[in-house]
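Data availability (excerpt). The following record was deposited with the supplementary files.
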Amino acid sequence: MVIVPCSETALVNAVDGANAAGGADLILAPFCTYTLTGAHSTGGSGGPAGLPNITTPITMSGLATEITRASDAPAFRIIEVDGPAQFPAAQGQLTLATVTLSNGDAGLGVGGGIANLGGSVTMTAGGVRGSRASYGGGIYTDTALTMTASSVTGSTATVNGGGIYRNAGSVTLLASNVSGNAPNNCAATAPLTAPC
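Predicted structure:
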């Protein structure tokens, strides 16, 4: 278990350390807004990301905690999760508890808040809001996404899936709210049906 002070540098270093250690539980500062002023990952094939790519099992637990891209920062998504479906050596598994991601901007890339590229994402009592991308303004997923008592709101896609875009895999929404996104809340690659 790693306690992460309320600063961009501390959060970036904690994710780097967790990846190097093969995974970790990160305890984020309660009522803290971690403001990302620059990208800390080239994002592999997915474009830049505000945090280092998640390549191991990492849990981030907060309490009314937010991770946001600074309003004057260049465009980058907040988080990319890399797994074996896309990156054979990666085993990215992200669990978020009581953490909100906001103001991600993947530009022409996918997943403004989260790009789940072959890993898995589980979110409880958290959310993604106000983010942008070509596909999956809030979240883009290739594999497994599970959300419980969480939300995706106020996000925008220039092509499809303003809230969530499911390219492949499963999306499970339990007591969760996906609303107020443009041009739509959810979309999926044919022949898959939209998850919500």
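Summary of structural features: DSSP finds one helix and 18 strands in the chain.
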